[in-house]
Amino acid sequence: MNIFDEIISDKDYPDHPIGKVIRKPTLLSKCGTRVTIDKKDRYDIAIEDGEFLVVNMGFSANKAGARFTHPNIAATSKSVHEFKHYRNNGSKFWTSRAGINHYFVIPRNKITLLPEKGYSYIKAEINGVKVSFNVSGGTSNGWTDFLRTFTSTSVNHKLSDLKKVAEVAVRNSHLEPIPVKQLDEHDEARWNILMAKATPDIKEKIAKMIKEGKRPVIHFLTGYSYDGERYGQGKSVYRRYKKVKTSETSYRLEETGALKYIILDLGYGCRAKVTQIDWYKTGKENQLIA
Question: 108-112, 184-188, 199-203, 286-290 — which one is most confidently predicted on average?
Fold first, then answer.
């Protein structure tokens, strides 16, 4: 058992020895299993022993980074990213986005630990790119953050940052294959809905294709079907009625409002509400989403 295991398993956190004190940027490979950044306030980082870090860099699925490819990416997966927000009164709320995670195996001699107190966000640099590792931490005769072999950064780094991180990543280490958690059926459906929300013009593009007679393939969401059929070709669209003013005192109703439902051709007409359609699969099937 190394010092990292001993520290995180000891709930009483007895007085532990000061780690290697760093006052300037230091290669992670030279940090050992514990560093102390602030002796007075006892801000420490306990580091799991090893030669590499597996760094998960996440991106909202509609960002350029999500579509990035490179031979040094060890794994890529879909993920639902959760974001915590704070209101002015101190209360908080959460939002979700469809995300893509890229995993890189980075040698520790390519990672520089910065002597900054992050409190669960360890500050570091990879090939000149400043990152914050999202970690767990707690009070331990001061504060201790725990940097494990598998870690993640904040999401939506610039594409130029992603390229620089990929430059120093390695492949075929003993850590591959990376144990990536796949979405279950429920989260896959949720991811698809969130992805469609991130590209709101899909509905209108599909409606335009139908109007032009192109008959796009329309997919139902998981849990919806018509006589066992999960998809069909779009035949016509129906919209909500919209009031159009014709004078100061009158108006007329036109079917020019938001898309309401699509009639599918299954050998017979089938009505699919917009809330029953898997807009991500539909957009991807019709080459509107990468």
Answer: 108-112
Residues with Cβ within 8 Å of 29's Cβ and at least 6 positions away in sequence, in order, are 51, 107, 108, 109, 111
Are the CB atoms for 28 and 112 separated by under 8 Å?
yes
Give SS3 for 192.
helix
284/202 Cα distance (integer angstroms)? 10
Residue 157: Cβ within 10 Å count: 19
Q: Tell me the average pLDDT across 259-286.
A: 89
Query: Helix, strand or coil for residue 155?
Result: coil
Residue 112 CA to residue 181 CA, distance in Å, equals 28
Q: How confident is the model at residue 32 (pLDDT cuts 50, 70, 90)?
A: very high
Compute the C-alpha angle 92/93/94, nearest 5°: 135
Confidence (pTM): 0.74
In angstroms, the CA 46 to CA 158 distance is: 29
Domain boundaries, the chain: 3-168, 200-285
Short-list 168, 167, 169, 162, CA closest to 104: 169
Per the prediction, the chain carries an average pLDDT of 87
* Beta strand pairing call for 52-60 and 150-153: parallel
pLDDT digits (tens, 9 = 90+) for 63-115: 999 999 999 999 999 999 988 888 888 888 888 899 999 999 999 999 999 99
Q: What is the CA radius of gyration of the chain?
A: 26
**CA 75 – CA 104 distance, rounded (Å):** 7
- Reported as type and span, the H/E element at residue 188 is helix 185-198
Token code pair at residue 174: 């003993």
Nearest to 44 by CA among 14, 23, 8, 20: 20
pLDDT of residue 140: 63
